Amino acid sequence: MLNTLSHRQELFYNHLAQTSDFPLALEIERAEGIYLYGQNGQKYVDMISGIAVSNVGHRHPKVLEAIQDQLDKYLHLMVYGEYIETPQVKLAEALVETLTKSKALDNVYFTNSGTEAVEGAMKLAKRFTRRSEIISCFNAYHGSTQGALSLAGAEFFKRNFRPLLPDIRHIRHGNQDDLVMITSRTAAVIIEVISGEAGVRVPPEAYHQALRKRCDETGTLLIYDEIQTGFGRTGSFWAFEQYGVVPDVLLCAKGMGGGMPIGAFIASQEVMSVFKNNPILGHITTFGGHPVSCAASLATLEIVQDILNGTRRNGETKEKSVIEKGQLIKELLIHPKIKEVRGRGLMLAVEFESFEILKPIIDRAIQRQVITDWFLFCDNSMRIAPPLVITETQIREACAIILDAID
Ligand code: PMP
């Protein structure tokens, strides 16, 4: 087979560790806005934002400018938490300002990735509550390191890596009956506001209120993993704003960096202060909150706020909101083979009868230069999560191609 591959493809298959036998293996030369440009003039529409990362589009000029400015000042100076680095301080301030209605969330710990934010938050919860049990959801994904993997709600991914962390229990996302499993033994519940890899499951509003109440009753920390849902993806800056509840710890990453690697866990000063003693240096990282990533993230945060405030204009007309764009996709993707389009804002799942029906549709859409995908724990549904900057015209064009691929 290797004979038919280009030299670069050979290098890719031979020297880059593979995680499946069927990587997408697209060769992208450059990216701009919602488009990825291939080697031979292809112009792909990125309808998944590199899995909910490129919320502000690829290479947003303001993000590039912020990166360039920081490149001219300094790169890594010192391990996290020792020097006063302006990009970190400014970003922490801006993040806390997005949370002013949630007074408890005023202290930010920067990481390199989502998984590391999860790991830090798990340690924080254990140390703060002095309990060990952590509850997460069936069909949840919180990362691939051994702590975060322990939370995964699917045995298939964990079986061959055991022993993992003990004292992890699972509840059904959105099901109030299971909340009784949260007890005074439970250090934390780690949960997504909208369950992403389960195929975008939006719980009823009352669920998060009941969850908050149960955590309060049992002295359990409520940790919202907004790694996928944060930074505007669902139509508000944080998804939890739509539910009228506030977590004790908030996790973010992915879209936060505008294409640069960064994550964070955010809590109150009271909770976070436990990392200072017994032991001192309770959680440390070399690169967490890299100054270039923080500079990019601050620009990203401001762009997302502009998008959500509706200050962007597309020619003369005011652009549709993220919620309206999601609604438009729901209205356009109507087809006898589509069973349902669910989700909030631009975090959507398009459900088909089976993976066998969906897979060739995804392949044909890619041939027609529209990139979609499926979900870790829901293989009969197509992932739709384009950059939030996608325009109405671009949405119409991409949806027409998806419908064409179905036919
Ligand atoms: N939590 C959620 C909800 C995620 O979707 C992901 C990534 N898909 C992670 C955590 C892990 O983030 P990362 O890949 O940046 O480590």
Q: Could you describe the largest sheet, including whether it forms a barrel?
A: 7 strands, mixed
Tell me the CATH architecture of the largest domain: 3-Layer(aba) Sandwich
The first-level CATH class of the largest domain is given as: Alpha Beta
CATH-defined topology of the largest domain: Aspartate Aminotransferase, domain 2
Oligomer: single chain
Task: Please provide the count of β strands.
Answer: 17
Order of helical and strand elements: HEEEHHHEHEHHEEHEEEHHEEHEEHEEEH
Percentage of residues assigned to helices:
25-40%
Instruction: Tell me which ligands are bound.
Output: 4'-deoxy-4'-aminopyridoxal-5'-phosphate
- Mean pLDDT, to the nearest integer, reads 96
What is the radius of gyration?
Answer: 21 Å
Instruction: Catalogue the unreliable spans.
Output: none
Distance between the termini: 31 Å
Shape: globular
SS element count, helices: 13
Percent of residues in beta strands? 15-25%
Order of adjacent strands in the largest pleated sheet: 4-10-9-8-7-5-6
| Count of folded domains | 2
Provide structural commentary.
This protein is of the alpha/beta class and 407 residues long. The chain has two domains: 5-59 and 315-406, Aspartate Aminotransferase, domain 1, CATH 3.90.1150.10; 64-307, Aspartate Aminotransferase, domain 2 (3-Layer(aba) Sandwich), CATH 3.40.640. The protein contains 13 helices and 17 strands. The protein has helices spanning 7-15, 49-52, 61-71, 86-97, 114-129, 146-151, 155-158, 205-218, 269-272, 291-309, 322-332, 355-367, 392-406; strands at 28-32, 35-38, 43-46, 107-111, 133-137, 168-171, 186-191, 221-225, 249-252, 263-267, 313-314, 317-318, 340-344, 347-351, 370-371, 373-375, 378-384. A seven-stranded mixed β-sheet has the order 4-10-9-8-7-5-6, sandwiched between helices. Helix 11 (322-332) runs parallel beside helix 13 (392-406) and helix 12 crosses helix 13. The protein is globular, with a radius of gyration of 21 Å. It binds 4'-deoxy-4'-aminopyridoxal-5'-phosphate (PMP). The site of 4'-deoxy-4'-aminopyridoxal-5'-phosphate (PMP) has 14 residues, from helix 5.
